[in-house]
Records
---
Amino acid sequence: MLSGYSRRLGGSVAPVSVSALLLYSLWVTVLAVATSDPWKLGFLALVTGLPGLVLGYRRYGVLVPLLGLSLLGTFLNMLLLYNVGDPVFSIGPLVVREEAWRRTVSLDLRILSLAGAGLLFASTVNPRDAVRSLEVELGMPRGFAFALAFALRLLPLVYRDLQEVMAVRRMRGYRRVPITPGDYRSLFMPLLSVTVERGIWVGVAAELRGFSLRPRRRVRPRFRRGDLVLLVLAVLQGLVVAGLAGP
Amino acid sequence: MLLEARIEEAGYGGKQVLREVDLSLAEGERLLIVGSSGSGKTTLLLSVSGVLDNLLEGYTRGKISLAGLNPLEPEGFRRVPSKAGFVLQDPDKQLAMPTPLDEVMFTLENLGWSEEEARERALEVLAEMGLKGLELVPVENLSGGQKRRLTLAASLAHNPVILFLDEPTASIDPWGLAELRSYLRRVSSERGVAIIEHKARYFLDMVDRVVALREGRIAGSWSPSSPGLVEELEGAGADAGSYTVREPRVSVGEVVAEARGVGAGYGGRVVVEVGEVTVRRGEVVALVGPNGSGKTTLLKTLGGLLKPVEGEVRLRGRAFYMPQHPDYVFLFPTVGREVAEVKTATGVDLTLLPGFGWVRGLMDRSPYRLSHGQRRWLAFGIAIAYRADLYLLDEPTTGMDVGLYRTFGSLLEDLASRSGVLVSTHDVRVVAEYVDRVYMVSSGRVWEVDKGYAVRLLEEAWR
């Protein structure tokens, strides 16, 4: 397995470096933002999105409802704003038209690629390893490296928060599944508030545990066998998005 | 002296919180700092640690020496962690890493230990704190007491000469508290320890000196054996020990919630097997038991938020579940919108409820920007407005000082006069003073226990 999580108490070396994984995830993110072609996005979703979701599901299966909400939100927004062109299919009296469908598919594939790239990193990297590797190998500022690493720890907590907010929404007679922008805002506002407060105090706690005293070390990144696989996949996806290969 | 602070004034932005506070702590001394919410306890910790001046938008005027360092200066502040350990109020706002081993190693690596040395020392200190075997368990799966011990381990791993604990009893059960006290006794003999806590009673028998803060000033300093100390401390807003065991209500109404032969849990897995639990209108019923025993799962199952894995729950009327954190209750960006939406949904004008007049002056404010006490209070107001038949309250008194607790008590009495109330709590005061019947949740089962027995159990568990 790739992860630092699989290590025993004595420690072990993962076959893919944290830095390579981060660069790969960032590269796929850039590609997913750079193109709006559904076929190219589909290729990114297939090569990185799906494996990322599969790998991430075990640790962050909690994100599936959030991802589902995003996909649903995308569809509803597109229906509201771009439902023009030839009919594609209908749901009862609602006719879904070409432009809304094309934009939904593109955006959903982009979301899947981004989520997959993020989960690939999040599910295979241990936050403490991430802080050390990003800082030591890539020379990333330690504050940034810590923020990125802490985001990995936040995901399960955010899911717990989400369950509580959903429970209260139901008690107060609001829809469980958000549909309107107002619903989404009322769902995310409390999550954001609690997360920001938690982030501030974790930052304070980290400083009180000597984070700013952390020694600055630099080492040359070590190339590992798994990094080669990532490199090949990165080049392949780059060629497809640039239109030099594939669909 | 490990700590010498002469604070002329300290606060945030233009708002003064502390004034003329002189505080000292000697080697080997254990100091308890008490006071009501808003008295300045946490600000004092943030000030003497240098956090107020160096990380938050606050200020301190005066002189502070912490283990020979000046934490008000950036360089002194940077070096504070090498001399001092800090345990903050809420473990979930302190633990940054996914496993106990990573958490402790993070501190040590920050302070320059090599990975191998840090791993070795982390394993040693985790074993000392009773966390052996849990080194690689995800932090989310630890109980409240275990998380608290982990924060202690991560703060002590580098052998600091001074240890600060901010409300260490918040969110832990009496059994976890007993463990914390035992570990504190063990680690505090060779260092200075300052405990900031409004539940003074839990530490009076193990400290050398008690200091009370009131409205940002030192209200008094006593030896724990001083006569009349309990009255003095309660006057300062601290919970110093006294409560009365009230007789259960005699007259109660019809059953509003009933579970028989129910398996409560998630995803097909039973967490708690319920032989029988009933709640009647007009009574307050408590669920007590260790952290992680399934109390919240049971509350949500009775409220219809979780489908029982086995059996059926009968709920007559409407339920309202109040989570532990008040922020979850707010769904709108301003207090005014919350008030308006509550009125639309329930017909109740929150601003006209007794004790809620203060809301009128804060209508444009975000509910998340209110003080912790105001947030908790507004959340209760929203719950009351929904006029539920069954209220399910999850650890409602966490972090409440005596004043807020008393106000909460009157609100609970009011709720119980027309609804059934089921409250999950570790707070012996709630059980003794407001509860009529008690269910114990432990080892995957729930059963009814005598109220007097429950009070004795909660009282004896932490000692």
---
Amino acid sequence: MIHLGYFYGLLALLIAYTALRNLRERRWRAAGFWAVTALLIGSGDWVLARDAAGDPLPAQCAGVAVLLLAVLAPGMQRPALAEAPLEQRLASARRLGHRLFVPALLIPLITVLVVIAGKWLTESGLIGADDSVTLIGLSLASVIAVLVALRMGRAPLPTAAREGRRLLDTMGWAALLPLVLATLGGVFAASGVGDAVSALVTAVIPSDSRVACVLAYGLGMVLFTVIMGNAFAAFPVMTAGIGLPLLIHEHGANAAILGSLGMLTGYCGTLLTPMAANFNLVPVALLELDDPYAVIRAQLPTALGLMAVNLLLMYWLIFAF
Amino acid sequence: MIDLNYWPLLGIACVVLGFILRFNPVIVVVGAGLVSGLCAGMSVPNLLELLGKSFVSNRALLLFGLTLPTIGVLERAGLREHAHAWIGRLAGLTLGRLLAGYLLLRQLLSMVGLNQVGGHPQTVRPLLAPMSEAAAEKEHGKLPDAERQRLFALDAATDNIGLFFGEDVFVAIGAVLLIQGFYAQNGIVLEPLQIALWALPTAIAAFVIHALRIRLYSRALRRRLEAGR
């Protein structure tokens, strides 16, 4: 049976290798950062199992490890790691041609195939019932694709670890940011931040004006998404606070349209916020850009224009159907 | 609203302040979590447990790391150079057409649920970035570094916009199911399709607005480069 735990183990190994290489190159902070990360990823299943069994100590240690990551991250530099020489890459590109696209396209292709076959794979017991089929698909696809790529480039297995490490170190702490932000989302939810925001928003809007309610709901979705970095976190809070009581129940808005357009208005906020790290900050690291907010800057005009369109659509459509 | 504790909102203030002052995001975010948790009256051991538990429960967000060895090995074998050379040979493929075509393709694929097909590690770094650079260089010659960086940022933005404003048209996507589930809990029963269809007008608007911006960008790029010469 294929278990997601194996792939977390593999990922932890790759990260541990990255730590080791940094240790040998005397980049102490990076070595420590990746070592702690590898430990957290590798021990995840065990930590959660112990916590569920009523032993909070491993989870508390993991909490200390997260604090350690925060202390180690600021001093990490983006190292200049040597790539294969340009001559060699050009020669290889000429030799392989379009075949180079095959492994890159295998990743989405296999992922999608596994997802399509997901129900059958789960029922036949090949994939654990608790594991996400998409994640298994993505992991499996990555492993197959790298084997194909290695064979095609006539490279030995350690090349995969070395190249993976090169990209991981290129991204540095930014690779971990989506995960850290999701952690913050968990802490925010547990400390009642959402309830406090929605109470504040509902306290200040005049509820008998349709325009004011639409604006408050739409702009509230954007603002809350900017703060939380995720429209999914904003949707239940804003819809429970403004959408349901004021727009749907009081003014008779169409629920399906309101939900759909509300979520999409939130997405405009996702385009604007560094809190949505996997979309806005991770590419900055991956593309090695100097300005940390370059991607947000490129998105700003589209996001604002689309937000205006969404608000107009919302005002016209929710009361018309 | 009187008995609600508003102090955890200080965590949000920390985040905003930290990002404005450009502190390292990791320390800002962890710090904000500590502030919010302590303001909510959690004890230190409980807060540590919560931090650790939330972190490891979300570790799936790092699984994209498994795709990096493939991308790295392919880069070593000349993937970027090949993508670059291939686009350079295709006559008639301008920068505007390439980016608008990618946007459309990304939207359409997300609409049928294939939102994993693209992404920053999978397609933007290894494929779209070198292709767009080649398309721009065909017209303008070698780009100065600042222009190259702006172009790459636009590539990443195009991928995000294509994904965001395509995926909600697909009925089985998380967002649509979240909306449906939320309403169901509140006594409003809807079919996912009803919700997904209303994402179409925004999807079209997103394409029109961003494609227009890509055109404006190409023109401005030409103007800037000619002025610099």
